[in-house]
């Protein structure tokens, strides 16, 4: 019985030894790989995939009459996403068109009035010439009778009759001039009124164009190729202008990674350096990337309340600098990386510049 226990103890000891050896070997391999990775790469796991995710915002309010997309659906530029009831906007355009036609008709009336007044002024001008000729003739007649009266060849009554006729002719001449001046002034008034109406027509046309835009805004289209995200509207829902109705991920722009490197790692990083990217979702696949920019400040400097080290509570904390990395490769492969995915970024040190 004692011998049996001795054999069992030896077996357990041997198994334990083998397991310890395997663990030590695994730790050694892991340590070697880690040291090699730290030696060859500047790496960080504080990195996420980013892409332009833009809200679809309505520029007009009203009732939704059609929703033509589903969540996660691929869309092309110009595809109709939503349709808003446009009856009110169409009526506003029609009302503005009617106001424009009314103002244009008013312009025609003013043009007709100008034409009439121009004829009236022309007639008044002709009467001025006639009245002026009468005055001239009557002045000569008065001079003759005055000389005849002085020579006692004419009576005082005859001179007074000629004088009265001259006064009447002068009055007619003055009246003709005043009529001509009034007609001319009235024409100028109508021209000024016409300018006001023309300005009103220009304003109404601008208003019509603006309301026509509103009609166009009732059909919401995709601004670019992309994939629809979350949908927050249904048919029959009342929306306001400026309301966010959905989200769309832009497929026409590059996809990038924002890697937050420690400040002690960015000394020799340069724009154009190549990096390796491994996503947590695809640990067995490696993506390539290129550094396109380094942040001008650390992440904490852009926070809502940046730390103030001058308060006396200073504790030195290693800061991180956001590095923007464009993901390279075929679009079909890149699209496997989704916005917000966590990734590990490895920057080979051998390409560092001096």
TrEMBL record:
It comes from the Bacteria. InterPro entries: AaeA-lik-b-barrel, MdtA-like_BSH, MFP. Keywords: Coiled coil, Membrane, Transmembrane, Transmembrane helix. SUPFAM superfamilies: HlyD-like secretion proteins (SSF111369). Its main location: membrane. The keyword Transmembrane applies. Residues 56-249 form the Multidrug resistance protein MdtA-like barrel-sandwich hybrid domain. One of its GO terms (cellular component) is membrane. Gene3D superfamilies: 2.40.30.170, 2.40.50.100, Helix hairpin bin (1.10.287.470). The chain crosses the membrane at residues 12-32. Residues 86-179 form a coiled coil. Residues 257-345 form the p-hydroxybenzoic acid efflux pump subunit AaeA-like beta-barrel domain. It is found in: Membrane. GO terms for biological process: transmembrane transport. It is a single-pass membrane protein. This is Membrane fusion protein, multidrug efflux system. It comes from Chitinophaga jiangningensis.
